[in-house]
Amino acid sequence: MTRGERNIAWCEAHLHLPEGRFVGHPLRMAEFMRDDFRAIYDNPDGTRRAIISRGRKNAKTTECACILLLHLCGPEHRINSQMFSCAQSRDQAAVLFSLAAKIVRLSPKLQSVIQIKDTAKELLCPALGTSYKALSAEVSTAYGLSPALTVFDELGQVRGPRSALYEALETATAAQADPLTIVISTQAPNDQDLLSVLIDDALAGHDPSTVLRLDVAPEEADPFDEATVRLANPALYEFMNVKEVMAQAADAKRMPARESAFRNLVLNQRVEAEEPFLAREIWMACAGEPADLTGREVYAGLDLSEVNDLTALVLIGRDHVTGIWNVKPTFWLPEQGLAERASRDRQVYDLWAAQGDLLTAPGASVSYEYVAEYLFREVFATHHVVKLAFDRWNFRHLKPWLLKAGFSENAIKEKFVEFGQGTQSMSPALRELESLILDRKLRHGGHPVLNMCAANAVVEGPDASNRKLSKKRSSGRIDGMTALAMAVGVAPLSPAKFDPFALIG
What we know:
Number of domains: 2
Number of helices: 19
Oligomer: single chain
Strand order of the largest sheet: 3-4-5-2-6-7-1-8
Structural class: alpha/beta
CATH class of the largest domain: Alpha Beta
């Protein structure tokens, strides 16, 4: 037997199904679960992290309960070792403990060696000195631990690329010779979310000690076809209720409001439950390298922030040969408190600042004086700015600083254009922006901060002709997309017709 086969044999010899139609029956692993065990335990490079991602109700938690018991009292145990599971909510954190405790109670042999502490959500094996505990979502509980095994349940619920709880437990394994982390979850909605970052790194093959078990339905496949559903749900014909799953597919097809959740939770696709303004693949199809806009004719959108939030400026300029609009975004956050904002928003603002993708304004706020001076010295001095759209709400505070920076009253009147944030101004701008992106007439270069804003952007409105970007419904910062829409809104998107007589003096 290989190590993986030995572990499968132990589980099937000692464990019973804790729930469902066959509760109490001896565990018999489905073939896809056996493949998971072989991939994790027979990896020639050794496994440091295993990511198991597939649709809901495919026994991911049951599989992890088996792994926990293997390490608590089975052949994978290490004397006096600690094991932990955690999730984003207290209730979710208790799910794995509850399932493992049920398995123990169904086996007289396991009950004789394992103590169940329901209140503390602990399992103890005194003879081996091993312990397992389900942690709450509080980060403070993760410090001072030294886990040999850690299970992260539904890590896809983490928004942004960072989780203080995940980082605290991952950095706590330094004292262990061969620590193992198991991640189980359906996919996160966005590329920038922590689980997506981990999955994409695993797909790239950078670390051979990371095992990825990913079942996902292709985005181009018919989402309501049973064959497509099967691709993300290997247990569909094993122990899932096929009739119920396909009824969910029929509901999603008939009621578009349910489609996003169905795609994410059942098909395991990266789809936001709130319908985004743009699908990820459509936005990223325009990630080509934009042309340098220095010295060129440009149109701009400026989304002024509150005192200490993200401020965005986006310039767009057309290549008159190809007709493609090139995008140049600039973002600011206050230098003071940058790390705290990164933690609050769960974004890598500090990394983006170090890479030059995010500028930091001195002090605790992005002052209007700072923005005005930047516009005068760095933008208008190096570009031919035809029009700059701004939100009239904050402009009365900016204008005095524009005058102080060196702009004349005439320049402000001629170049700066009021742009409302309601449906009257935003709806036509969003329609034009959508057309540019669908026709691939836009190049944004995959700027990471703008990508974040695009992933978060959600629209609201009764119909396609009455829409606006919604900060309340969006899952994070959308300032860059607001500024881009404003720039598009003041730009003449239809190319001027060539008039040969205009060349005659």
